[in-house]
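debug: dumping io for the single-chain case to check the tokenizer round-trip. Nothing else runs in this session.
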Amino acid sequence: MKKKSLFGINVKLTLMLVVICGMFASCYEKEELTTEAPSTVAPVYKIAGVVSNAATGAPLEGVKVNDVTTAADGTYTLIAKEGMNVLKITKEDFRTVTTSVYVEKIANGQVSVYTANAAMYPGKDAPTYKTVKYNIKGTATDESGAKVVLTSVVIPGLDVTPTGNTFAVEGIQPGTYYAVLTANGYKNAYATINIASVAAEEGEGDQIVNSAVAVLMQKEDAAKVARYFVCGFVTNEEGVAVNGAEVKVNIGTSTDNLITNGYGYFSVEVPAESVAPTTLAVVTVSKGGYATQAKAGIIKFVETGATSVTSFEIVLKVKGGEPVPPEDPSVGGSKDIEVPINKAEDTTVEDIKKTEDETVVNKIEEIAKELGVDITKEFPVVPVEEPLVVELVSKEVIIDEETGEMTSETKDVADQIALPANTNVYYVGGTAEVISVTRDIPAEKATASVRTYEGKPSGTVFSKPMEIKFPAPVTITVEPDYVLGVLYLDEKTGEWRADAGNYAEYDMTSKTFVGNISHFSKFRFGYESEINSKESIVLKDDPINKPCYTGSASANVTVNGSYMGGTAYDEKTPDMAVEAALSGMNAETKSYVTTLLKNMIKVDYANVMPTNAYVKTALSTTIVVPAYKQIDSFSLERKQVKKSYTVHVIDKNKKVVDVTVVVKRIVSYTLTPNYAIGHTHGHGGNGEDLNAGGGIINFE
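debug: decoded output
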């Protein structure tokens, strides 16, 4: 009998282990090979939509949307870029529409299509614009507030001749200028003057932009102290000044909160003791509808007695998903009121207390605090002995009162502005000049406002209220059962605030609303209103089960179908919301408030009004499928956003009633192919073999 070799048993065991290990190794290796790698196909971004005739609803062919043209059915598709995309929509004999779409980043292999519909009104864009002329008007005073008689003012490249304590330059170009002021008995003063470009208004003639410069001069024997200023201009991407933006200037542990003026300008003086050779100024700018921007810079350190100006230019970009307001064909009027400034005298708040009642004094103190003005020092007052009455004429688009839609026609509308006799005009801002009132129609369209005006110079206070009469925006046959609030723009916070107890009421005799204004900043007659973002969610649709595959080469697959999209009211339309909230008010009031809501919504959506529910929207997009891949299905996701629009109506009993409408919108859809793991061939579905001439998938 042979003995069994222990060595022989070990050989068999070893071979079994090799086989078993090989099996496991093979399984592991196969699992590694069948793990799906991330797609290397770049994402695709598109913007698609329909352009229609706002007057008839018919699709418009031949409309230019940036560099593409709409087809016979009004549709267009263009390739987009990640981030902000601005669309300019133009066609001969139609008014231009501008809107924007913010495109969010997606993963490789995905296609994201954003919807941007628009409606165009027949007519022509204004063929002419006013000629913008820029002027500098400067004054010089010392630390006591006394006027300094200037001997010379030197601004390189400009011809300047001072008169007393003032100097002026007309017909200059936007830019930055440096001025050197001299006066007997005073140390030379230096000023940096920034002239920001502003958008030309529609119409004929000149548009005058005056930049006021106030220079403080030190006496020769005064203690020499360096002065530091941080200032700047804020514009949007189109170069237009942004008014009412919140500006935070941070220097060390100190923060100043400012608001840009009508020229987008801000300025703050920094205490000399806070500045060292390496002191950093951080400027942060924010405003609703725009992305917050920040810039930083080293404050220029100067010798004792010198002036340092650190300037910032900040461009605000529109937030994602927020459309740029479309162009408005209406033109707001502007009118000067020639008060007798040759009779200007200097006064103080203590002198005013001797002649004016407490209401006027309180208003002057309130405005001085808002502007940061020291009214213990003198400021001008102009007496107006005779009544001054002017008409401010604007050009308005005629509204079809049955549909609430704009027509292609315009009309001239006259507002009457009256300053009563024996009125004292107090220039709390410090400069006596002709006062003016300008109507801002675009601001009216975006808010629940009947009239919005800007009164200049800002900070002017009237001892007797200025009266403004203006026609009703709609036909009135019965006495209105509502009044309009009077709201002022707080120039320090940038917020609109209602003037408590002050209302514009309808006068059946003159057929106008009549309102009273006690002081100048930007002001309006109407209602407080709000536009708030409510939610942003992703809606996941059922998978599209349409398999397809490639062989040894990559190929395209075109997916055609539809989804429920567009812009729609969420539960209540404006008519329904108004009827529910204002059930006891007359039909004319309801119609007018409905129009206010629709105007707010229309401005937000490039003239396209929401529908009562989402509508079937065509989908067509192409995806590149790599070689040796099988798609089992496609996932479709829709991004939905909601906004609420609220108007705070004031009834005849001065009670506030809120009317709110919620609008939902599908802003984009994303199509994602779902790849099979470890397979290279598919079965079933149209367009299954992409390399063999397939490639079109249709679904409902």
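debug: round-trip ok. The longest strand covers residues 630-651.
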